[in-house]
Amino acid sequence: MLRNVTRHGQVATTLNAQSGQCVYLNHAAGSIPAPPVVESLTASVEGIAAHGTANPLHFEKWLTGLVEVRRALAGFVGAKSEHEIALTSSGTDAINRLVRSLAWQRSDRVVLPDNEFVSNCAPWLRLRDQGVSIALVRTAEDGMIDLQHLRALLSSQTRLVSVSHTPNSIGAMQPIAEIGAIAAERGVLFHLNACPTIGQVSLDVDDVGCTFMTATARKYLRGPATGGFLYVREAALGELRPPSIGWMTGSWDANSQSLEPWRDARMFHDGHPLFADWLALGEAVAYVASLGGMASVARRVSEVSRCALEELSGRKNLVVYGPRRPQDRAALISFGAPPRTPREVVAFLRERGIVAEAGNFLCPVPLAKNGVSEAARISVHYTNSIEELTFVGRVLDELPK
After folding, report:
1. Domain map of the chain by residue range?
2. Among 32, 108, 342, 397, which one has the highest count of C-beta atoms within 10 angstroms of its own C-beta?
């Protein structure tokens, strides 16, 4: 059972930025790395400093370690094996590599929600330069996808549907299993951008029905700031090509001066591995297991998230955006406190040692559908305590009118 853990223990009402403590509520941007992740990063840097970046004795050990990382990630998301997992520099890198790996035809169509985050929107929109058409699915004011409209948009020309598990400016948890089933019915490829939710909810690629999944290390996995991964269903590997070429992409034949790409997800690798970050990513996955596994973590995140929603929704001076039902929400809450601007609200919180964020989070459409251009946002994790959230509520009660 996951304990009611908090980075700083009990929270006093006098907690402030000058005390050196903080209530960290910005996990949707990037979490505080788990202790084994920091230890792994430190060990890697010390190893490189002592033995060099390519000492054969250590290089081979690190390469073997990356196989274990890919194997751990495969188990974490329910993939068949490490052959369906590629390591990337970030979630955005994983999305861009996926976009470039498919051989596009001018008759192809890609379907996206109309409220996507820029990193899962701009790379697909760029395909219009190749004659690929883009269709946008309607979403409601609360951020949820209109499944009937999605069905209506899918046609014989639709090659792929791409959806972020949640738009990170409003926290609507999209019905990804239903989306996966609709895509499967029509024989359409389905890409899930799991960057906002990997590590806060259990994700199994077969349950979701996705062909591809992209994810980042730095958010709810509590991994390093750099690093991500791409899952590719084995059945789809045949229609992919390496998005870039390097010495890690395949087997080089010196006689014919040709490179034969790997026939698994390693085709997405190119240059020198990000050993420190990727080995630390493996430690992040192992740390989840040490807490009782993803089911235990997800229960705790849900408990903390519901508490946060209750604290904010119950205050008359705040306007909360997104789905009303807790089960439809990710572990983030965007809100306003008129007449104070979102940036004034966040500055007020930071003066009292509460780390939150304000803006449109490069995902402006969901907020625009609520009549605002920016919001304040808190995003919670299992590292937060109920006492911290109660403290946040009391601080918000003190907002100047």
Report:
1. 17-25+293-397, 37-290
2. 342
